Amino acid sequence: MSDERAPSPRMPGPASFGRVDEDGTVYVRTRAGERAVGQVPDVPAEEAMAFFTRRYEALELEVSLLETRITSGALSPDDAGASIKTVRSALNDAHAVGDLDGLTARLEALAPKVADQRAARKAERAKASAAAKEAKERFVVEAEKLAAGNDWRGGVNRFRELLEKWKTLPRLDRATDDELWHRFSSARTTYTRRRKAQFARESEQRETARKIKEHLVVEAEALQSSTDWGPTTAAYRDLMTRWKAAGSVPKGVDDELWKRFRGAQDVFFGAKSAAMSQQDSEFRANGVAKQALVEEAEALLPVRNLGAARVAYREILERWSAIGKVPREMIRPLDSRLRAVETALKNAEDDQWRRSNPEARARAEDTAGKLEAQIAQLEEKAARAETRGDAKAARDAHSSAATYREWLAQARKAADDFSG
Fold first, then answer.
1. Deepest of 97, 130, 142, 187, by most Cβ within 10 A of its Cβ?
2. In the chain, where are the structural domains located?
3. Does pTM surpass 0.85?
4. pLDDT tens for residues 196-219?
5. Cβ-contact 314, 355 below 8 angstroms
6. What is the pLDDT of residues 139-173, one digit of tens each?
């Protein structure tokens, strides 16, 4: 054989794991030994080797992609296990030259990752199942609470929301799921039955309320022409109280009955308002007259001649009583001003009596005499203290004497007032 067919030297990279025989047979080396992977006759050894190393590169790419997908979690553990098995089978009989043992080792290294992911997914499923159980138990508790309550409008919507949420949750083990669903469904059924019964009662109550309101409308219309303003106003007030207590009536019927009831009220209160308007004009004229009397009474102040002021005030009161009623908003202000004049006259009488009271004057003069005696004693005490050089005692005595002098001045003024 010529030198041209001699074995080629080992090439770097995947080619270093194989060789090409003289007849073009290509071999791959693994830990299990050397085996032929194919034959490419009549081509240079490098070309034959390159053909089978490209197959290895394809396998390596497939292993790399599998590593990436498993590491990223793109494959489920079951799909990942099946893919590893498929690629491992391809590597066992691969017609390729390269580090097949290395690729096999990389595949084996993926097995623990897949196992970890399977365990993690199992834990996630367990967690999701626990969360679903907790949610369903919570839904059941809320449903049973709704079934025992009386929220007839909001409860319907809430049951619908709970049911939609229930459908999105994963199933639990059959026994637990069936038990929870039975409780939820029973609560829903109980609520629906109670709601229907309540609506039936409400329908009956509305019919009763309709009859009551029809009767109230007849009563209201019978009173609308009355001119007995006070009692009829009270009667309409009573009718309104009974109307509110009657309860609900279907809206269309209620609107029609209310229109008639309100219309009768409007007729009566319109006539009353017109009558009150005329009366109000009279009352306002009375108010103007009484305001003039108040001003006349206020002109008596300040009191200079108590007797004349009293006579004039009594005459003003007689004219006041003869005038009659005034508008409601004028009553309190006018009365307050008139009472203020009366209070001033009373105070003037009290002051005159106080000034002419001999007993009070005597008490004031007696108090002044006692204060003068106390001042004399203090002045004497201060003089003795100064004589013996006790400056502090002297100051205290003078200070006390000054205080008593202020009281004496007040007592003398009171005595002068009584003498005046």
1. 97
2. 3-118, 125-203, 206-277, 280-355, 358-419
3. no
4. 988 888 888 888 888 898 898 898
5. no
6. 899 999 999 988 888 888 998 999 999 999 898 88
